[in-house]
Amino acid sequence: MNEKKSVQEVFSKNKEAYFTSSTHANGNDLSVLIHWLNPNKDLSALDIATGGGHAAKKLAPNVKKVFATDITKEMLENTAMHLQSYPNINYVIADAESLPFLDNSFDIITCRIAAHHFPNPDRFIQEVERVLKPNGSFLLIDNVGAEEPSADIFINSLEKMRDYSHGRSLKITEWEKLLSSNHLTVVKQEKRKKTLPYNEWVNRTLDKQSKIEEVKQYILAANTKIKDYFQIKIEHEEIKEFTIDEWMVLCTKSPIR
């Protein structure tokens, strides 16, 4: 199956789960997002791969207008229904790697917990640079791979097993190269451990018991080094929670050269 069709299928089926997900709806990064961006009512914002619209919802009261895009029509319709009380959010079906906007259109661009689904992150960053105004702000928040090879393989294999629309969680060093090569300068960044409640996480995308059991056994079979790195909490052979690495980075676009 085409990677982008996989994303549309998964997110269409699970549109409500992503709106209500505690990981997506209640992350501490949502309040930090406004503090870092320091937006005002004269600015226009773009939220790429908006999903449940949590970043767009946070931005809306603080900017002139928000364009919330997503490749999945059903997801976008569900989010628009929930966010009817925010009249300055506009919804556009769009591929993050081919945005339907003119060059230098937005003062602010955000992309939160989505880029690991993009098959071509280089094209995504090229598009961000293209539609962002000179001196504009880009805030990326995403799960990232580990620099240590075995931990990197483990988490990306686990995510793919749980969600076949998962592409790859890039390492921070890989993101940094993409940003710098596209005239996006890092001004602030933070790496943190994000705790995932296991049952909510595994049931968000899987409904077949055999697949759920496969994920469980994969985690239980991990060696001590992996279990320690991801802080996997197990009680009576039941997985309670674990952590993944998340990176939040604020960039500015270089002035027109």
From TrEMBL:
It comes from the Bacteria. Residues 46-139 form the Methyltransferase type domain. This is Class I SAM-dependent methyltransferase. Keywords: Methyltransferase, Transferase. InterPro entries: Diverse_substrate_MTase, Methyltransf_11, SAM-dependent_MTases_sf. GO terms for biological process: methylation. Coiled coil: none annotated. One of its GO terms (molecular function) is S-adenosylmethionine-dependent methyltransferase activity. Belongs to the methyltransferase superfamily.
